[in-house]
Write a structure and sequence with these properties.
The protein is of the alpha/beta class. It is 40% helix and 16% strand. The protein has 2 domains: 100 residues; 342 residues, 3-Layer(aba) Sandwich (Rossmann fold), CATH 3.40.50.150.
Length: 467
């Protein structure tokens, strides 16, 4: 019975446009040719348990079994290519991105996850962030390059290195913000500090960073001290929902890839607090993963469990409605999903290239199960961003507070001056170190002001949290 159902599920791949030849091997040695031909993809169920997982929980059970090593996915071009092609066909098969069969177990798991990981409570939000971002900084450093660039790079020519694309991205965001010397700007989410350093050093802005994650804050503070920018960059350990207490203090606001972490019930609170903290005529930029339609799009169960806990991808219609409600006027919108796909290609390649170095950082965290689920995350995201059938997109929203004539009427200012990467090296941290060891001991916790509500100041373990 279970193998019949699995064969039926794989038979749906025949509806895909790619139709990569696929062979399924079951634990008893029997085989099924889901798509005929010399197989490019070989799926091997190594145990009966992996078959039962897939039978009961559909794709959730299948990927869980793959993560645990109970299913192997391979082919003549290698396991990464085979997994990529299998995911691509999956997106092509489910053209609305929603499986056509209802699975009550999978539905219950997703409902339970949404309740447990909801970010309404500050401490839960901090736990969710720690599960991802408080892993050893060297892990992200190896993947993201010397600039720790974590969101979509700006591949202007397509020939940029990873660092060049990220440096251009930061410069591009600064141009959108219309930064001036002396501007007071608040950044939510540190991403280990590169954007804040550039805004302070290159543009002369005064930066306050709202960062909840100790490991990110530690690296960022070391970089601030190393560059002598203590008087220009200040880190406060606060939630974005605390911004409203700083009424009309800031000229500018920016967050890159952070709004997703607000969670499905907190997006409005975030935007409300941004509006309250900006001065009239203030400018802001938000980049995020979202959807360009009016329907809700919940984070995939497995990504929510192992990668981005508590995340939610807000739809464009909700963002527009909240901005209008709280007096923020959208002046520019850019869709960047293909840039994000290119960026994640590089990040995946870097993770695999440096895997032996990553693994020894902490073998209890960075084991084969970790490597497999992160490959699913990267390849699934890349295929989703590139697929014409996917609803998932990434956006850059630029907005101003109020109706004043304070932003350029055309976009010539974004492109009239070539991007200059000649000073990029000043912001780089050499690979193999998670900051500046010579400063260890000099950069102490008092350098990072804590301003969290009482509930969120409880200790949170600095390691990934699993069920």
């Amino acid at each position: 019975m279970k193998r019949y159902v699995i064969r039926a599920a794989f038979s749906f791949l025949k509806r895909s446009e790619s139709k990569f030849a696929t062979k399924v091997i079951f634990s008893n040695g029997s085989t099924y040719r889901a798509i005929p031909g010399d197989p490019r993809i070989v799926v091997h169920f190594k145990t009966k348990g992996s078959e039962w997982r897939t039978f009961f929980c559909n794709y959730i059970g299948f990927i869980e079994a793959y993560r645990l090593g109970q299913v192997d996915i391979d082919g003549p071009a290698g396991g990464v290519t085979a997994l990529r092609e299998l995911l691509r066909m999956s997106y092509e098969t489910h053209k609305d991105t929603v499986p056509r069969t209802f699975n009550p177990i999978a539905t219950f798991l997703k409902w339970r996850q949404e309740r447990i990981l909801n970010n309404r409570k500050y401490l839960q939000e901090k736990k969710n962030l720690y599960a991802h971002y408080n892993m050893p900084a060297e892990f992200f450093h190896y993947m993201d390059g010397e600039l720790y660039g974590y969101t979509e790079g700006y591949y202007e020519t397509g020939k940029e290195t990873q660092n060049e694309a990220q440096f251009k991205k930061y410069e591009y965001i600064c141009r959108k913000l219309r930064l001036n010397p002396g501007d007071d700007i608040v950044e939510v989410g540190s991403a280990w500090g590169t954007l804040a350093l550039m805004m302070a050093k290159k543009y002369g802005a005064n930066v306050v960073n709202y960062g909840l994650v100790d490991e990110q804050n530690r690296v960022m503070q070391e970089r601030v001290v190393h560059m002598g920018l203590e008087d220009k960059v200040k880190i406060v350990q606060r939630d974005c929902r605390e911004l409203g207490h700083e009424k009309e203090r800031y000229d500018k606001y920016v967050s890159l890839g952070v709004l997703e972490h607000a969670g499905k019930d907190c997006v409005e609170d975030w935007i409300k607090n941004i509006a309250e903290a900006l001065k009239p005529g203030g400018v802001g930029v938000i980049t995020n993963v979202g959807v360009g339609h009016i329907h809700k799009y919940y984070t995939d169960y497995l990504i929510g469990k192992y990668i981005w806990r508590g995340c939610y991808f807000p739809c464009m219609a909700d963002i527009f409605a909240y901005m209008e409600k709280y007096g923020l006027r959208l002046v520019d919108l850019e869709e960047t999903r293909f840039l994000y796909a290119d960026t994640m290609e590089v990040m995946l390649a870097k993770m695999l290239e440096h895997w032996d170095k990553i693994r020894v950082l902490n073998p209890k965290i960075f084991d084969e199960k970790f490597r497999r689920i992160w490959m699913v995350y990267y390849l699934g995201s890349i295929e989703s961003f590139r697929s014409k059938h996917s609803l998932l997109q990434t956006f850059q929203y630029t907005f101003v507070k109020g109706q004043g004539d304070v932003y350029p009427h055309t976009r010539e200012f974004l492109y009239e001056k070539p991007f200059d990467t000649s000073d990029m090296h000043e912001y780089e941290v050499p690979l193999g170190q998670d900051g500046f060891p010579e400063l260890r001991g000099e950069v102490t916790p008092p350098d990072i002001e804590t301003g969290l509500p009482f509930e969120a100041t409880s200790s949170v373990e600095a390691r990934p949290i699993s069920y």
